[in-house]
Please model this.
Amino acid sequence: MSNPQISINVSSTEPIFEQLVSQIKYAISVGDLLGGDSLPSIRQLAADLGVNAKTVAKAYRLLERDKVVVSRGYRGSFVHIDAKSNLTIDIKSWLKDELSKDIERYRDSGATDSEIRIAFSNAMHGKS
Amino acid sequence: MLEKLLSDNYWFMFMQVVMTTWFMPLMLFSRLRNVSNSYCRSHMSSESDEVSSLFVRRYLTLKIMTLLSLLLGLAMVGHAYFSGTELLDWDNQAGLVVLFFIALIPGLWISKVQLEVTDIIFVKSSSIRTANLVAVPWLSYISKTIIALLLLGQVLFVSSILYFIENPFRGFGGYTNLFGLFVMNLIFLVMCYFALTHKKLSTIEDPARRHLIKAKNLRSSLIAWTVAVFYLSLSLWLSGLALKGYTLLLQSLYLQFVVFLILSSVALPNFERTESNLTT
Model:
């Protein structure tokens, strides 16, 4: 089997970490990467792609959260054993659905959009 | 006159000056020019003219710099030769180091040209970056023979120090040499780390080619490291055996080797050779 590769476009409007997440997920979905396969280290991938290590770390963190990638300390990062079945988890659309339901409830109780926005921002930043 | 030249230490000092201030910079600049032009012609034809004209402009300055360095070096050695004194009327070993630093002046200029070329390639290259999605073990970049030689050199140097602690000679630094070895190892480790992780190579689209270039850069650092350790052991033994004349010759050869490595490292990776390696 040839080495699976990742290609990103540094001039694209799509954030680099999102390109990394979607391409790693794609490589898993088509079977280029299998559960248990080791992934390049954050520094290595950042150096190869000429991007900041924090960007790659962010992508890996999101993949870990979705249980697509698992980190094993100094041994590095690996494809999660159930990665393929976990690919269907789409936290973004779940968040959107949940927030839409909540926003609808707030509107029904008479809150304006700007009040909702300010309250949401205050809650996010821990303000009273 | 020729006999005096050959019987004294001056001949290898003259050789060091000619090799490091004239021959090596011009040879490696021409290699950098050929590799860069060839790479730009085959991969970035629109920037080819810009790169060629840059080299034409910079070559004249380099020739002036190498000529001045050569004359300065020859004046230093010539003065010592005709007056029968040590270099700079001071000390031959220190003088050789001064000659080494003079030889780095054209090297700095070549390094500047290399950065200018890399910037053109970096800015104008495609915005697509490609990488392997499998972990590449760092051992895959390293030749086991060089590692074995490096370890052997370390053992040899430490054993030599332990031997000379029991049988010291005049001027022997004792355990301080071990600290020197530690610092040198640290410097070379950092060099090896940067050879593997620096980002300039990310513009090369093919990960396999990038792997070869990194392996080549790492090999250069490891060879320099190994030679440095053996050089230290050998110079320790030459001093211990009171063969000071050979110590100077060895130091001169070592410094020439270091200048060659430094100048080689500022030349762009040989894309043509890595291309042929990839196909085999």
Summary: The CA atoms of residues 24 and 260 of chain B lie 7 Å apart. Chain B has a mean pLDDT of 81. Chain B touches chain A through 20 residues (CB under 8 Å).
